[in-house]
Every structure is written in C-alpha cells, then in structure tokens.
Amino acid sequence: QSVLTQPPSVSGAPGQRVTISCTGSSSNIGAGYDVHWYQQLPGTAPKLLIYGNSNRPSGVPDRFSDSKSGTSASLAISGLEAEDEADYYCQSYDSSLSGMVFGGGTKLTVL
Amino acid sequence: QVQLQESGPGLVKPSETLSLTCSVSGASISSYYWSWIRQPPGKGLEWIGYIHFSGSTTYNPSIKSRLIISLDRSKNQFSLKLTSVTAADTAVYYCARVPPYSYGYYFDYWGQGALVTVSS
To answer: Which of A63, B69, B75, B120 sits at a 20 to 30 Å CA gap from B89?
Structure first.
C-alpha cells in the first residue's frame, strides 16, 4: 500500500486532456512538501517530468502541468499524444518517515 | 551529461546479501545526495534510502535493519548492500541523484536499472 494514492489507470483519446490525481496526508503533501512527477515508458527507467512548483526539465513539453491543493496534487496532460502512453508516478517527502514516498503509479492509455 | 550505471550480480540466493554499485559520470559524488529505488516486477516504485556526500544516510524504515548504503569517493561510486534477502526483494534496482531542494527531495537523474532476482 503506497503512502500516496493514485488511480490505477486513466485513458484518453489523442488531442484530449487527462488528469492524474495524487492524494497524500498531513505528513507529506499537506505538510507543504512539493509533489514531483515521473514518466516511465515501458521497459525503461523513470524520467523526471515535473519537479517543485511546476518546473519542467529541459525537453519536457508544456503540455504537462501540475497543481497542488491541501493534501492532494494532480498532473494534467493536454493535447494527448500516442507517445504519452506510459506509467506516471507522483512522489513527495514524508516527515513521519523522514524519507521519500511514491504513489502506486497510474497507467495512461491513449485510445 | 550526468549518467548513472548500476552493476552487480543478477541472481542472489535467499538469506544471502544483495550488493550493487552505482557508477556516476558527469557529476561528482562529493556533491548532492545519492539514492536507491527499487521496483518489483509489475509493481510500483519504492524508495530504499539515500546517502549525503558527507556520508550520512537515511533509510526506508521498512528495510532499515538490513540495509547499508556507502560512498567510494575515489571511484565516484556509491553502493547498496541488503542482507538476508528473500524473494520479496526481487526487483529492478535503480540508482538516482537527489539535487538540493528546500521543499522536499526528488530524483533528477536515474540509472537504467539492474534486475536482481532472489532465488535458489
């Protein structure tokens, strides 16, 4: 059972917008720690997608955005493309564990 | 270009010790935090622990009693040792860099991963 909760799967058609939620608690997201997002394409290592307050590493398109409120965060992907089909993970820091925590991952299917 | 590469045995017997090394290029091990993360087959990511360039460590409480992470500054590497392994420790093990950040850590560069299977 992951400390951060994500839906197991989401789907959308090319060109559509999808969101992936990430729910935590008062010891992680609710404590003010930022939420970071990773994309894992099949058979590859996770790749940093968004970090901190909506920062994107070089090369990540602005179709990817995030938001945070209270004990939850969400990743939004607009203009969905076939290449976006992957697993997405949220991650934060948890003060009660004194370490990093991940969501269980969400599989995005592009219809 | 920062690159990380895991290396070590792909098969470990139950009750023995799993040992992996992460070789870092394009960045000095004497800066940043350095971390291990694992992913059991078909499952999600689990943070294992991290080490500061000073040598101080923080481990996931769930495996803290079996874990040692260490640095080798002369080789620009850091290592993982997990003792008394069981089949539940079978996973792809990733090493990653943790940059300084005031509002909670994250992983900016990852290795490609090393599959370790625990089986007799």
So the answer is: B75
